């Protein structure tokens, strides 16, 4: 049995007094010795947590015992060490920032694309009348994506609604959406249906579940994840590397965050350029006075969240940050 687990999950389910729930949930997670990042909103939960296997089991059992979260599909990775250093639980207006806040228009609890299990997604993805749509951000699909997938030029998921018109030419096709764990597809597929697309699907459990249950076939590259691993392997059938170093163009699967905290750009960089650039994306960042020490990983620990801090203030500070998938 693995000593440590990392759990990826989300759940669209109404939470009354979500800010208080977030504060209480932070205490609960810390009591179990877990680390991770969780977003709480009135519309549900979105989290990645990591810790001892028994603590993770207790966490899953506790959430499943709550009727609001009984349907959570946890994606479980066995890891050698916890995937985070600190525990954060943030209250926000959405569990994935899309700007689509009117539940009368987009409500994943009422309407989304049809959920496809990995084996069914694999069986459909190469059909002539199918379009595979990646709804993730540029830095994610530049690291890895499904073969022949349509990608969008977006820096954050909140930019997705503005790209709908670019997809109009596919309205007579079956649209198969996918993302890391499934959460973005819930709103993306709902929006596509709202905009008149009639045959919309989503990969249930996302890339992570597809890798576990379908071997990751035809997913090219690696999958970006929102913890200190930064990326994980998905394809055990026909893997290939598609990402290149931002600085020299050499093929590399390594994803890092820029060492300049005022930039913090997600980008791929080979080890040679990482050493030469001190983990920075540009000369300007390399000479920035706040540049962090580069240790070869490109992951930097966030300031811990004290229990009892005003979560609404944190929401305002972090509104534009996509914390977890």
TrEMBL record:
In this chain the Rhodanese domain maps to 126-219
Gene3D superfamilies according to UniProt: 3.30.70.100, Rhodanese-like domain
Superkingdom of origin: Bacteria
Q: Which Pfam families does this UniProt record tie to the protein?
A: Rhodanese, Rhodanese_C, UPF0176_N
Catalysed reaction(s) here are: uridine(34) in tRNA + AH2 + O2 = 5-hydroxyuridine(34) in tRNA + A + H2O
The UniProt keyword set, sorted, is: Oxidoreductase, tRNA processing
Q: Which SUPFAM superfamilies match?
A: Rhodanese/Cell cycle control phosphatase (SSF52821)
State whether keyword Oxidoreductase applies.
yes
Enzyme Commission number: 1.14.-.-
Q: SMART domains annotated for this entry? A: RHOD
Q: Which family is this protein grouped under?
A: Belongs to the TrhO family.
Role: Catalyzes oxygen-dependent 5-hydroxyuridine (ho5U) modification at position 34 in tRNAs.
Q: What is this protein called?
A: tRNA uridine(34) hydroxylase
